[in-house]
Amino acid sequence: MAAGGIARQDQQPVFVLHTYPFKETSLVVELFSRDFGRVAAIAKGARRPRSAMRGMLQAFQPLLATWSGKSELRNLHSLDWGEGLLLLNGEALMCGFYLNELLLRLLPREDPHTALFDYYSQTLRYLAAAEPMAPTLRRLELKMLQELGYAVPLTHQVEGTPIEPEHEYLYLPERGAVSPGDNETGVQLSGKTLLDMARDDYSDPATLLQSKQLMRMLLAHYLGDKPLHTRQLLIDLQEL
Amino acid sequence: MKNPTSLDNLVEALRCLPGVGPKSALRMAYHLLQRDRNGADKLAQALQGALEQIGHCSSCNNFSEQPVCNLCATGNRDARLLCVVEMPTDLMMLEQTHTYHGMYFVLMGRLSPLDGIGPREIHLDRLLKRAQDSIVEEVILATNYTVEGEATAHYISELLKARGIKVSRIARGLPMGGEIENVDSGTLAQAMMERRAVR
Ligand SMILES: [Zn+2]
């Protein structure tokens, strides 16, 4: 055996999505890497007080990771700080947790998504810079579904008719916008909302509201029955 | 060969310990039964005793044998200050500094959104009640500077501020005796961003 030499990857740009305790002193780290997609690795001894990796295994920080191994659980050898420290505060932190939960739920392992990685990285920068959160989240949600190969048609109806800004539509998962009237369940929205989303323009409050309803319905469809922890946590906090 | 059921039960029970898998659980079970039956007996009794005796202090939520723990009951602490920590070990560390003489609230955890650990699990309802006893004047948030600890501090501070309570957060930055040359760039960047005016 070449001691994992073949499968060794040096200084890969990554973000930590989540960590779990593993055995007495180690952690399993779920990484989102730019060139290899989601990778899980063991950080040996990372829970020891003097571990060099301990303080760095934090979500939302650009890191450079070196790992080896070919099994489903790689060995994480070292971490370095990537470019620019990101400071997410308050609500932006919760948005970050929400994005990480979406990635963990929707992104299959070992499936590279370079464009999504760059978009995620940019999104964290916006969140750290306290940019308006709602449009930032809508953009990433849409990008995530598109990058993962789920069609979210915004400019045309299924049969090819262009979306008209002043028309009302019913949006159905897996199909897109249809004329309302059929008694199917979907999200009701205006053509303008769809076209705004296609143009990446969230300046209209109506667009912001309807795009949120649309993305929530689509994500619920692709996530299945298990609700998102992050959403439940925000509901619980509001009840206090 | 099939193991006897009580051995299976013991192995299964030991697996509730953090980081103990089936193999190490079996090793522990063999050790206790073969090499140290005396120790096993002590362990069983100590566990039983602890379970019966130890509950949570009604004031600070730390482990306690009495309804109110010793620290909360002394009466010589400054009841105007309430310091919120994640774990009992954090309280112990702060006590060892001998610089803080107020009261505590131990969350017994932190908000961990991706693990499904929410406000209920860390007893935020009890903390809110505790902080509004009309004696507490300032709540000091001493949760960890991890992303989870930060999120916990943020939501607690929002909840308390909405109820008109003054909130502060323990500072972070260079360690005692820290040389810039040897400090990690994360800490250094934080220290730069959170610099303060020199008085
Ligand atoms: Zn107490």
SSE run of chain A: EEEEEHHHEEEHHH
Average residue pLDDT of chain B:
93
Major β-sheet profile of chain B: 4 strands, parallel
Measured on Cα atoms, how large is the radius of gyration of chain A? 20 Å
Please indicate the percent range of residues of chain A in DSSP E strands (runs of 2 or more).
15-25%
DSSP helix count of chain B? Answer: 8
As for the number of domains of chain B, it is 2
Physical arrangement of strands within the biggest beta sheet of chain A: 1-2-3-5-4
Structural class of chain B: alpha/beta
Question: How is the quaternary structure best described?
Answer: heterodimer
Query: Could you tell me how far the N terminus lies from the C terminus of chain A, measured between alpha carbons in angstroms?
Result: 57 Å
CATH class of the largest domain in chain B: Alpha Beta
Structural class of chain A: alpha+beta
CATH architecture title of the largest domain in chain B: 3-Layer(aba) Sandwich
Q: Main sheet of chain A?
A: 5 strands, mixed, barrel
Number of helices of chain A: 6
**Helical content of chain B, roughly?**
40-55%
How many individual β-strands of chain A?
8
What is the CATH-assigned architecture of the largest domain in chain A?
Up-down Bundle
User: Hey, which two chains have the biggest interface?
Assistant: A-B, 34 and 29 residues
Care to describe what's here?
The complex is a heterodimer of chains A (240) and B (199). With 240 residues, chain A is of the alpha+beta class. Chain A folds into 2 domains: 3-81, Nucleic acid-binding proteins (OB fold (Dihydrolipoamide Acetyltransferase, E2P)), CATH 2.40.50.140; 90-237, Recombination protein O, C-terminal domain (de novo design (two linked rop proteins)). Helices cover 35% and strands 23% of the residues of chain A. Chain A contains 6 helices and 8 strands. In chain A, strands 1-2-3-5-4 form a 5-stranded mixed barrel. In chain A, 32% of the residues are buried. Chain B has 199 residues and is of the alpha/beta class. Chain B has 2 domains: 5-53, Orthogonal Bundle (Helicase, Ruva Protein, domain 3); 76-169, Dna Topoisomerase Vi A Subunit, Chain: A, domain 2 (3-Layer(aba) Sandwich). Chain B starts with a helix and ends in a 6-residue tail after the last helix. Chain B has 8 helices and 6 strands; from the N terminus they run H-H-H-E-E-H-E-H-E-H-E-H-E-H. Chain B has helices spanning 5-14, 22-35, 37-53, 70-73, 88-96, 124-131, 147-161, 185-193; strands at 55-56, 63-64, 78-85, 102-106, 138-141, 166-169. In chain B, helix 1 packs across helix 2. The relative contact order of chain B is 0.08. Chains A and B meet through strand 1, helix 1 and helix 6 of A and helix 6, helix 7 and helix 8 of B. Zinc ion binds at residues 57, 59-60, 62, 64, 68-69, 71-72 of chain B.
